[in-house]
Fold this protein.
Amino acid sequence: MKVKKSSLIFVVILFSMLIWCSFFKTSARYVNIIGLLSVAAAFYTAYILRSNTSLCICFFFIAYSIYSIVIAVYLFPELRPAFYTQFHDFDVYCAGMQCIFVFVFVLLILIKNSNLEKTIYLQTHKLTQINNNTIQNDSIVLGCVLAIIIISVTNIKLGDFSERFRITPLYEYRIIFFIIGMIYSGKNLLWKRLWLVLTIISCFIAFIGGNRADAIPLPIAYVYFYYNRLNPKNLFIGLIGAIIIMISVGTFRQNILRGDFAFSILFQKILNEKLTFDTSYWAYVPAMAAISLSNKTPLAKKVQLFWGQIKYIFGGSRYNDFRLVFYTKLFFAHTNGFVSPLYFYFWFGLWGAVIFALLVYAYVRCIYVVQYNNGKFKKGNQNINKALSAYFVSSVPRWFLYEPFGLLRGEMITLIVALIAGIINSLMSRNIVGQSDLKTSNSVDL
């Protein structure tokens, strides 16, 4: 395989930093350097994918999350939540940042060395909106809308005053019905407007409930199907605005409920927290806990837990105890979440970050094929691949900050729902064709 010069540069950076760690004693300066390099590489990855709006937003979120971790945990440790006082070993902090560094640079090298960047840039003007060639099926769309309403009403529990809404895992998967519904909405302008209204309402509920990560997937999915080639300049301006909104939501909610909201409080929060996304570095705590436990856990227990991950993918919540987020809670206090590039370190060390990078890259390649070369697929398979691709970009908060199961279990559930929708659409289409043939036959007989 031919290796590009730009890829070689990133390979040199990657191995130079890792060799530095191997031959010299790790220090805060080393960790800060690889942290800043990770931030730069992550934002650069989002930039080179800027011609594909939904993919760019996906990687911008990853970059912003990494920025928040580097700033709040490493460069300005005074921003750390009290949970970080549980970790006294500097090697744990070093290993955590190394995982992020390896993940970012392996992913960047793979993308730069492929033809993705060039192809996306050159063919953007040829890219029609995702829904232009889809079959419209109003019955499937109505079924998805009904499913979303039922899930939203029955899977949210109101918390006490000023507390977050409590949601079930099923509520998090409502994005799948948004995706399937938009796939079968075709070019219908009424359905397009309905999805916009539902997206706005759902985001408002998520913001009021204090669950910001649940609001992000819906607009990304909407962009994926209807506005996937926005002007890059306007896109990045909009993303900066979205960051301000995300930070504002928590401040607005808490202070309005207390009746003492003022814009000065918001500005002070932004200055004090360096424009960071607090969910990121709170989700980093259980990941650090897993690294801390990795050298203390017997091999037999590691094998048991690894097998449990596979059981969870197919069996669901009955195997929750095997997930690292719950296993680490037996030894460390945290509020759940898990920064995914660190997840497989528990079993494979830094190779775990490489594994996760390869998994993410596989989905990026899938999006490339679906959007720029989908002639390879039959019509039914096109819809399935669109569903999987849309779930990947839209659910990035879940699979990056809440364990990698969104790319495993979440995509599996998406595949099942997409297959069911495809079968229903096929049966309905055959029925319509059969009735049409029958009418034609009767008219000929007459």
Summary: The first strand starts at residue 156 and ends at 157. The first helix runs from residue 5 to 23.
